[in-house]
Amino acid sequence: MEIKNLCKKAFEVKHDVAKLTTNEKNKILMDAAEQLIEDSEAIIAANKVDMKNAVENNMPQGLQDRLLLTVERIEDMAEGVRQIANLDDPIGNVLSMNKRPNGLLIGKKVVPLGVVGVIYEARPNVTSDVFGLCLKTGNCAILKGGKDAINSNIAIVNCLKKALLKNEAPIDAVSIIEDTSREKTYELMKMNQYIDVLIPRGGKGLIKSVVDNSTIPVIETGTGNCHIYVDESADFDKAIAIIENAKTQRIGVCNAAESLVINKKIASEFLPRLYTVLTNKKVKLYVDEEAMACLGDVTSVYEATEEDWGMEYLDYKISVKVVESIEEAIKHINRYNTGHSEAIITENYSRAQKFLDEIDAACVYVNASTRFTDGNEFGFGAEIGISTQKIHARGPMGLEALTSSKYIIYGNGQIR
Amino acid sequence: MEIKNLCKKAFEVKHDVAKLTTNEKNKILMDAAEQLIEDSEAIIAANKVDMKNAVENNMPQGLQDRLLLTVERIEDMAEGVRQIANLDDPIGNVLSMNKRPNGLLIGKKVVPLGVVGVIYEARPNVTSDVFGLCLKTGNCAILKGGKDAINSNIAIVNCLKKALLKNEAPIDAVSIIEDTSREKTYELMKMNQYIDVLIPRGGKGLIKSVVDNSTIPVIETGTGNCHIYVDESADFDKAIAIIENAKTQRIGVCNAAESLVINKKIASEFLPRLYTVLTNKKVKLYVDEEAMACLGDVTSVYEATEEDWGMEYLDYKISVKVVESIEEAIKHINRYNTGHSEAIITENYSRAQKFLDEIDAACVYVNASTRFTDGNEFGFGAEIGISTQKIHARGPMGLEALTSSKYIIYGNGQIR
């Protein structure tokens, strides 16, 4: 009942939120940033409760680090909200307007989606980010954060609501679901009467559960089994720098490289050089027979199983497959990738274009690291997630992904 | 098992279909048009079986008419496919390409969705239309037509496959599900492993069932409870012509008007004039108390119940509500509409703009009939359906709605 009420409240105010002008929305965002800093003490106190539970529950150190809030981190959250205020507001723009033979003038106008539901992991900074992105695009946000961050999230949302209240905007423009149990998540997924789109951010299990159960249109933000194909004409220095960067700069992210595909013509020369660089960074290699033959009897190299080709390690591990041709490389990548980010390293024009044409993924690179798949790196200023599905939005999603359109038609009495 | 195999086959050839050039696709479409005419006899023979069953099953006359195929109608189908060949191919265009500060060149390229599933009613002409639209956009089509048209559909798809075969293109670019039982439809809805998008076309019940059960992303093509609001400053002649057209030009379509909202200031003058025109066309009026008072004791006028406000009659019936103001009109329409097409009749500038801004629907009209909500009328050349949801596509969907995008990134060794 509680979830239904909360969704219904958002639904009831969505047209008022949609009507806010850019100036009004920016004022709320700047006030929210200030309020976050003013309320730092209360937010940190709530976060302490979450951190205490995390320690008691033996949460892994990496996750504890993402959960922790400090004065500096709250300042970063506030700065993130301010940056969103500085972005151009897409709402209300008319993308095209065409005159029909009968005189009708038909325009395509950018409008908010309405009510956006976001399910995410235990990272409290996402709470203010999602609020900022949704409000800037005239949407109401229904947030379901990780249960480990619930106290922090409630404190942050209370703070954001103060900024709405101060500006006489609907406080139901943002809500957090306080009961983080699995049943309530299922209940949320059935609220298609009130919610226009649901964005799950998190692991494979969560995303599959949402896809299987949601009656609300879903934007899948997916896992990344990202490949780098080293072509026979690759510049080895570029290839090694890019692979090192894509694998080791940050291992726990979806745009990290998880699998290498190497052309046979250069495998025996390239792989030993790459091996030295990767093993210096403590990377373990899971390789096929051909690659094994090129590397010889060395440490940190293991036989790959079928499972390795489909694996998103999120760890200091990478799989290596040797292929006869670019055709075999493309076939392998299109079979095992997750539609996220794939790269070719080559100096050959035709094979670069072929790879760009034929690889089926959100982002396809020539001679650059897969780590660039990111809203900020793409110049969107902010990101609500990275879509790995094909409808509505694909790749990093900025403000535009949080909008819909409506046709506005100016007539002077036309009938059919 | 059969459905899974059929979906898998489409999945396996989708990259080959995506690679077809515009010239190759157009050649297939022109050959398919010719083949339809060549195979007219076989298609009409299959259609005779469906028609015989339809008569035996007492199918309503209107539906029988939509099911019937004649030589002329097959010629129209062929002409429809030829027209699709003449449309611009959106696939492969790069919509924007921006240089980032680090030198990366990031482009957004239009690509096919992949495998498109379409569930539709017993109208065999839709079979060739959907094939044409999907092939033109490099997609594979999995068709589930109404069971009453199954023999006609199988004959048409066999004919389309001949055109594919003749051009050495994958014949699995189009498939029809021969078993039209409900269980098979449920099975189809779970094929998210192979199908990229599912488009249900049909009644409320079908669409709700797909939304509730599909694990494939769905584009809802919806019912239309379309309103016309007659403002106090309306030109009565325009208003009456538009209402007559929107209600009676074709009653069984989703863009027909189903409900009138009349400003109180003009109700007593306007309604009697409108009444004469509508009742001449045999339209029954379901009216509120205010409207009843304006009309007096006349035939063909009934008291509206709460149910009438939400009703898509698809019949010679219309509901009528009198309101105090445009604000009340907008509130009423946003509450009861189905997000399809809504119109205001007014000569007042500010209220026209307010209506365009605040009505939440795919298409919002000033001084024109809601009947224009149609891909051809909008200049798209063809239409796969009319979306009433907000993600991916909203309103009439042409070729563009059958595409996705991918980012292509040209680098020269960039790392993060």
From TrEMBL, chains A, B:
Keyword Oxidoreductase included in the entry's annotation: yes
Domain Aldehyde dehydrogenase span(s) in chain numbering: 2-285, 319-379
GO cellular component: cytoplasm
InterPro entries in the cross-refs: Ald_DH/histidinol_DH, Ald_DH_C, Ald_DH_N, Aldehyde_DH_dom, G-glutamylP_reductase_CS, Glu-5-SA_DH, GPR_dom
Catalytic reaction annotation: L-glutamate 5-semialdehyde + phosphate + NADP(+) = L-glutamyl 5-phosphate + NADPH + H(+)
GO terms classed as biological process: L-proline biosynthetic process
Pathways per UniProt: Amino-acid biosynthesis; L-proline biosynthesis; L-glutamate 5-semialdehyde from L-glutamate: step 2/2
A Pfam family matched in the record: Aldedh
MF terms in GO: glutamate-5-semialdehyde dehydrogenase activity; NADP binding
EC number: 1.2.1.41
Name of the top EC class for this enzyme: oxidoreductase
Keywords (A to Z) from UniProt: Amino-acid biosynthesis, Cytoplasm, NADP, Oxidoreductase, Proline biosynthesis
Annotated function: Catalyzes the NADPH-dependent reduction of L-glutamate 5-phosphate into L-glutamate 5-semialdehyde and phosphate. The product spontaneously undergoes cyclization to form 1-pyrroline-5-carboxylate.
Protein name, as recorded: Gamma-glutamyl phosphate reductase
Organism: Lachnobacterium bovis
